[in-house]
Write a structure and sequence with these properties.
- The protein has 390 residues and is an alpha/beta fold.
- The protein folds into 2 domains: 242 residues, 3-Layer(aba) Sandwich (Aspartate Aminotransferase, domain 2), CATH 3.40.640; 125 residues, Aspartate Aminotransferase, domain 1.
- It is built from 12 helices and 13 strands.
- The strands form 3 sheets. The protein has a 7-stranded mixed β-sheet with strand order 1-9-8-5-4-2-3, sandwiched between helices.
- Helix 10 packs across helix 12.
- It is globular, with a radius of gyration of 22 Å.
- The structure holds pyridoxal-5'-phosphate.
- One of its GO terms (biological process) is polysaccharide biosynthetic process.
Length: 390
């Protein structure tokens, strides 16, 4: 539909095009100097050393590699909040391990340390948490809990690219972190991901797992030094090919520079929604951020009483406003075979709606959404409450 306000949308323009043109003209489009520069820039943004990060072709691939590095295999359990991205669940299940889903706080949709702790067993090998909507959540306490229990913590920081607690970047609280730069995220390379690994030895293995398990990458100078032919190689694992390239990394470098501006605009949009939607009966805005927490403002969501969420989504669609819900609870996906009972997540999943949130929204767009939500909620709830006509 023309004039539809999208729920997520990237912001790419002339600067990114110029960067791509430069890569084309350089005659080296594969993984090279720009990818190295993007990794170094992203590591600086996180406040970690460049050897601890490896770029990938998606966040899902980075999560698969993280599970491999974590030694997750048959017989192991991995705890995830049921409100997780499906790729995280698949990364666990594909290794023959069992995903164990834990509940979340129905207001923040993030798990608390208590939710995670309740799901730990002697077989738990790792915990994978995300930062719902871009909010850090209980990540500091969850990291502490995992350290105490000798369980690895992997942060799915896909939507927490600029989220921090007391200045520390989300994704660096645990043992590993993964980020996404796909077409629906804030910092977009079209498709891409990043993996952070705290342990230096594991970190050194990550680039090999991302490139076919090759032990020595061919290259003339290296081959001369090692007195081998430069096209020969050895393998340390039978891995996939999960690397990115300089075309996408050039886009990423430009977007990384624009990221603070993107997030600042998103913060103002969230504040405008908060003001515009305050006091609507039957509707709750997200709770305020705790002190010291910074969100990436990836999502803006509302929570609705009276079972009107699905009807409201349809009403808004008819007015040219696209909304959605992420992430449908994984314990309800039959393929995972879970019998968990998770009332907080069920409540959140059945009453929460994501409103349009991206840095391309104008104030007028936000006001159009606010007015439509106010009117539609009032109409839906009013209709339910008014007595039946005689
Ligand atoms: C988008 C997303 C991913 C997956 O990212 P890809 O780069 O598309 O593989 C993982 N986790 C969360 C929370 C996401 O929103």
């Amino acid at each position: 539909m023309k004039d539809m306000i999208n729920v997520f949308q990237p912001m790419l323009g002339e600067q990114e095009l110029a960067a791509v043109r430069e890569v084309f003209e350089s005659n080296w489009i594969g993984r090279g100097e720009r990818t190295k520069a993007f990794e170094e820039g992203f590591a600086r943004h996180l406040g970690v050393g460049p050897r601890h990060v490896t770029s990938t072709n998606s966040c899902t691939e980075a999560t698969f590699i993280a599970m491999e590095l974590a030694g997750v295999g048959p017989g192991a359990e991995v705890v995830l909040p049921t409100i997780s991205f499906v790729g995280a669940g698949n990364a666990v299940a594909s290794r023959g391990a069992r995903p164990v889903f834990c509940d979340v706080d129905p207001r923040t949709l993030n798990p608390t340390a208590d939710h995670v702790e309740a799901a730990l067993t002697p077989r738990t090998r790792a915990v994978v948490v995300l930062h719902y909507g871009g909010r850090p959540g209980d990540v500091a306490r969850i990291a502490e809990l995992c350290r105490e229990r000798g369980v690895l913590l992997v942060e799915d920081a896909a939507i927490a690219v600029a989220s921090r607690v007391d200045g520390r970047a989300c994704g660096t609280f645990g043992d590993m972190g993964v980020w996404s730069f796909d077409h629906g995220k804030i910092l977009v390379t079209v498709d891409g991901g990043m993996l952070y690994v705290r342990d230096p030895e594991l970190a050194a293995r990550a680039p090999k797992l991302a490139y076919l398990g090759m032990e020595q990458v061919s290259g003339y100078d290296q081959a001369l030094r090692a007195r081998t032919r430069w096209w020969e190689f050895e393998l340390s694992s039978f891995s996939r090919r999960s690397v990115t390239n300089d075309v996408l990394s050039a886009v990423g470098l430009v977007q990384l520079g624009r990221l603070p501006g993107f997030v600042a605009r998103r913060r103002r949009i969230a504040e405008r929604y908060d003001r515009g939607l305050a006091g609507v009966e039957g509707l709750l805005c997200p709770p305020p951020l705790p002190p010291g927490h910074e969100s990436s403002h990836y999502m803006y969501w509302i929570q609705l009483e009276g079972g009107i969420r699905d009807d409201l989504a349809r009403d808004l669609y008819e007015r040219g406003i696209y909304t959605t819900f992420r992430y449908p609870p994984l314990h309800r996906v039959r393929a995972y075979g879970s019998d968990a009972v998770l009332p907080g997540a069920d409540r959140a999943a059945d009453g929460t709606l994501l409103l349009p949130m991206h840095q391309g929204l104008t104030d007028a767009d936000v006001d159009r959404v606010v007015d439509a939500v106010r009117e539609c909620v009032r109409a839906r709830l009013g209709r339910r409450r008014s007595p039946a006509p005689a």
